[in-house]
Amino acid sequence: MVQRGYFPTFDELLETDRFVLIYDNQIVVRGNEFVWEKSEIDAVLSIGAELFLLEEGPATTFIAVHIRENPAKLLRAENRSLRSLLFERGELALTLAGKASQILDWYTAHRYCGACGAPTTQHKSVRAVQCTVCSRQYFPRINPCAIMLVVRGDQLLLARSARFKSGFFSCLAGFIEVGETPEQTVVREVKEEVGIEVENIRYIKSQSWPFPSQLMLGFIADYKAGEIVVAPEEIEEAHWYDVYSLPKVPSPAISVAGELIQTFVNHVKQHQFGTNS
Ligand SMILES: [Zn+2]
Q1: What sign results for the dihedral spanned by CA atoms 265, 271, 272, 273?
Q2: Ligand 1 centre and the CA of 7: distance in Å?
Q3: CA torsion through residues 46, 52, 54, 60, sign
Q4: Are residues 179 and 94 part of one domain?
Q5: Tens digit of each residue's pLDDT (9 = 90 or more) over 48-85
Q6: For labeling, which of 43, 129, 176, 216 is most exposed (least CB within 10 Å)?
Q7: CA of 74 to the centre of ligand 1 (A)
Q8: What's the 115 CA to ligand 1 centre distance in angstroms?
Q9: What is the CATH number of the domain that holds 20?
Q10: Which pTM value belongs to this model?
Q11: Which residues lie near ion ligand 1 (Cβ < 5 Å)?
């Protein structure tokens, strides 16, 4: 295996490498395939592109390719949003295409130093860019968010954001603020968005969410006190739901919100039927 840096050059590419192509914030797809072989994209590489190491494996290394000219015609391909790919391809799209999209988003936003304004250059040994004048380093940044399902007995609280498709409900969520623990975020966000107090906050699971670069930390929290009063600028409506009459909610296959909901629904149903499977 060739030891390459985080910014491989064209000369370092191997036939065994696999590529995720990005043009204009979209993933280049042929049919429903978004991973390309080198021989398929030589024509695109010869036009000029930026390369980023994604995943290095024993047999195959995945590399993200940022293309500046629309490759659709050249490759007989189409350019698809990451979000649309996610709904079709699930986990793999999130891992590979999501990571490619995040790296490129970071790189594009750090071509210049935020401190002195000079151009940055690719770091030789870590995934970072470095200022050519003041040497400050910039690493890819992730934004941690807490996402929480509030439950009360056998009921769960679901809310509709104004951004959601009609009829669609989900958990509450918010960015973790400077100086906060995720548990403090859960308490604050629930209070701010629906006006109620929670307790017994337990961590369930996490998910990288590349829209554009969030880390979602998923919690379930118990209702403690208060009545639902929604913050109108954030939430259109919020209600307590019985697990047998849920509205449209996110799929557990693609989102931690869906998994939190399913975890609780399964828990309630198992409890009610007395099964332990
Ligand atoms: Zn600088």
Answers
A1: positive
A2: 20
A3: positive
A4: no
A5: 899 999 998 888 999 999 998 999 999 999 999 998 88
A6: 43
A7: 39
A8: 5
A9: 3.90.79.20
A10: 0.86
A11: 113, 115-116, 118, 131, 133-134, 136
